[in-house]
Amino acid sequence: MSNTIWSVDEHLEDVLAAVEPLEPIELQLPDAQGCVLVEDVTVPLALPPFDNSSMDGYAVRVADVAGASEEFPAVLTVIGDVAAGSGELPSVGPGEAARIMTGAPLPPGAEAVVPVEWTDGGTGGGAATGMRAASDAPEGASGEVRVHRPAEARAHVRARGSDVQAGDLALAAGTVLGPPQIGLLAAIGRGTVKVRPRPRVVVVSTGSELVQPGEKLGEGQIYDSNSFALAAAARDAGAIAYRVGAVTDDAETLRATVEDQLIRADLLVTTGGVSVGAYDVVKEALSSVGDEDEPGGGIDFRKLAMQPGKPQGFGSIGPDHTPLLALPGNPVSSYVSFELFVRPAIRTLMGLPDVHRPRARAALRADKALTSPAARRQFLRGTYDADASAVTPVGGSGSHLIAALAQADCLIVIPEDVTSVEPGSEVEVVLLG
Question: Beta partners for 420?
Fold first, then answer.
């Protein structure tokens, strides 16, 4: 461990400089959700692919319904049914109409659609209130229909290509695929798409005192919360997360575990065993993982000018130079470190345009001034009120206060050169929601 004190920004810059976006792969649509598109997608066919009806009603010729009224309805011969997905379409001639359902193709000869409410629905009675299903009302597909209102050309017709035209750009490279984008890809017939995949992130928590939740605690033991919190945070950032809980404080065991995990990791995160006195285990274990003859490997253990989260480790290990971030073991320190360093690394691997959490300025709501150590950037937990642009601290500054972390939705940032912040003054907050 060098004696140089790194700033938060220097450490983050170092991490991100070593992380390259993952190579693109072709994925099925359900697997591509949340991923970044690496190619422009053009529309192979127009949407909708044919003129179709936007209403349930009757496909007619404009001249046949000109001047129609309730008193003097246009009486048309019904020649058949056109349902969505229809194959053979009846041709509508003078004095004729075809029953048509929403989304069904406009049959040849027809120029407009009159909604069923403008007609008697073929019953010979007054205005119809709705259309019965073709299977329930075969008699409605033949006989006569009285139309009570005229229709202009193309009334209630969705034109072919009115959504997108063939050859249009559907989605540009760099688009993050959310539900509407997945829907558009399916609508234009794309079953697979080329994207940067989700990174595989392996989280390893170290500490002989750790016990898995659900098991019985012995003397001096605590539950392993970090591996759960960080695996959840990795998933939240867009990664596929693998959790390896509670490896004992033994260099050989830790080394073997990390070497085993390399095969499924695009990024490794360890938590615990990096603070003064204890870091030797992690340092000893990680300094020789993988092929020792490989240049450029190894982990650098550092002190950062921040609170919480002063001790950090970073480097690459194994034959593929897999990036590894070694975070402190205190639950709040490890989570804050994850947010500041690991999350941007995951999002860089994904090729996302914006790797950082949004930030805002907010007025501090507090009973008394907040103190902060000189020459350290402090991150306090807080709750942010967007309407009032205000933030309230929760819990103290202790790095073990995990209960307060569960109440927080932001981090309050107190810069290195500030040692006291008065209530009402403006602070920067990192939004975690």
Answer: 371
Maximal C-alpha separation, the chain: 97
Can you give the pTM of this predicted structure? Answer: 0.80
Contact by Cβ (8 Å): 204, 258: yes
pLDDT tens-digit profile of 390-421?
A: 999 997 655 456 777 889 999 999 999 999 99
Model pLDDT for residues 68-79, shown as the tens digit of each residue: 999 999 999 999
SS3 220: coil
pLDDT tens sequence across 203-237: 998 887 888 888 898 888 888 888 999 999 999 99
Distances in Å between the Cα of 230 and the Cα atoms of 1, 212, 226, 227, 334 are 24, 15, 6, 5, 8
| Paired tokens of 322 | 């897999």
| Contacts for 54 with CB less than 8 Å, ≥ 6 apart | 102, 113, 156, 157, 158
Structure tokens at 213: 């939740």
Contact 348, 197 (CB under 8 A): no
Dist. CA 235–CA 365, nearest whole Å: 32
* CA-angle at 287, arms to 284 and 292, nearest 5°: 130
Helical spans, DSSP H, in 287-382: 331-337, 343-349
d(CA 101, CA 34): 36
Cβ pair 188, 44 in contact under 8 A: yes
Quote the percentage of the chain above a pLDDT of 70.
90
